[in-house]
Amino acid sequence: MIKSKKIIVSIFLFLFSCTLCADPYKSILVNHFNENGAGVIVSIYKFGEKEFEGAVGFADIESKIKLSPEMELKIGSITKQFTAVAILKLVDRGVLSLDESIDNHFDVSNQLWKKITVRHLLTHTSGIPDYISKIYYKEGLVLGKSKEEIFSTIKSLPVSGVPGEKVEYSNSGYFLLGLIIEKISGMEFSLYLEDNIFKPLKMKSTYYLASSDPKVKNVIGYNGSRKAGNFSGEVAFSAGGLVSSAEDLQKWLNAVRNRTVLSDNSWNEMFSPYILNNGERSNVGLGWGIGELNGEKVFVHAGGVFGFSSFVVWFPSEKISIVALSNRMDHGWFNWFLEALGRKSSTQKLSDLSFTVLRESLN
Q: Looking at the Swiss-Prot or TrEMBL record, what is one Pfam family this protein matches (predicted)?
């Protein structure tokens, strides 16, 4: 958990004193990022209105295609926020409970699974190890595996400790949530999200990445100056298989601000920190990392997969939302951007709130 009282304060001051000042933001991007390398898109909204949106760098370095704000990029683990919303919509319908055992949905002989609830999966407290880092760290995401193969892998992994004991980032939990969504709804995960989230919010540039799509509309991912490997959306599935744009993610954050799509009770569940078995308050909600700065809450999640990195940040008290997308697999650039806005450099980074997302930084 971030403890520094100074972190982000300067961002508030900068944003408040600079309403609709696009040029300073653009100057920061141009001065801080290599315009001849992989690119970055930054979108900042305040009270639901656009404060700034801009991009620097290339979507395709070799073809000299510039990155532009409307382009669609792979968002990795930010997918988990939409998986959480999909689960909560089933809860709102009364066909699922957050505190029911996942044993109700899976035929698994492991008795420890009987103690794992849907809430444990959502809060990374199930104890089921991460299948991507354990098994498919590089090879599987490139080559692709079926959902059945991945489920077989996940159920073979030994449960670590007691469910609810500790937060341990795991893509496995969100993969299983996708299977639960499909089982209860009778729909494919991608179609359920399309009908229940993306269409209502008019998110026309957000979709599930099929393995047949080697690149996303001319946006190529890079690890440094090297092109990243191909990406199989089926392997990441409901843990990280979506593509989106900065504008669409701001539509999502506007829904967060206005508390649409879900019931009030579900919104409260999403942004409430999970209480561990020992009574301690964790730094995770349902699909969000949670922090507190000078008494003000901040919510954040990051994503990273094969040449792409992304962030969404929400400051609820001041209604400020930040979306940052890059076709470079490096989460450090986002901290550099925040520091360029005036935050004092610190070893305690904003990305620390995204529950060790760097485990997904596949080089």
A: Beta-lactamase
Distance of CA 198 to the CA centre of its chain: 16
Angle between helices 233-240 and 79-92 (to 10 degrees): 60
* CATH entry, 9-360, from 3.40.50.10320, 3.30.2420.10, 3.40.50.300, 3.40.710.10: 3.40.710.10
| Cβ neighbours of residue 139 closer than 8 Å, sequence gap 6 or more | none
> Which DSSP string do the residues of 211-265 spell out, in sequence order?
TT-SSBTTB--EETTEEPPP--HHHHHHHH-EEE-HHHHHHHHHHHHHT-SS-HH
Q: Please give the average per-residue pLDDT across 113-126, as a whole number.
A: 97
> CB within 8 A of 208, min separation 6: which ones?
189, 190, 193, 233, 241, 242, 243
d(CA 255, CA 41): 21
- Band of pLDDT at residue 172, cut at 50, 70 and 90: very high
Place of tokens 């510039």: 66
Listed residue (246, 322, 319, 299) closest to 84, CA to CA = 299
Contact 56, 75 (CB under 8 A): no
Mean of the pLDDT values across residues 143-151? 81
Q: Which residues does 156 contact at the CB level (< 8 Å), separation at least 6? A: none
Residue count of the chain, please give it: 363
Residue type, 224: G
Domain ranges of the chain: 9-360
Q: Which of 297, 332, 307 is nearest to 12 (CA)?
A: 297
DSSP 107: -
Neighbours of 113 (CB within 10 A): 21
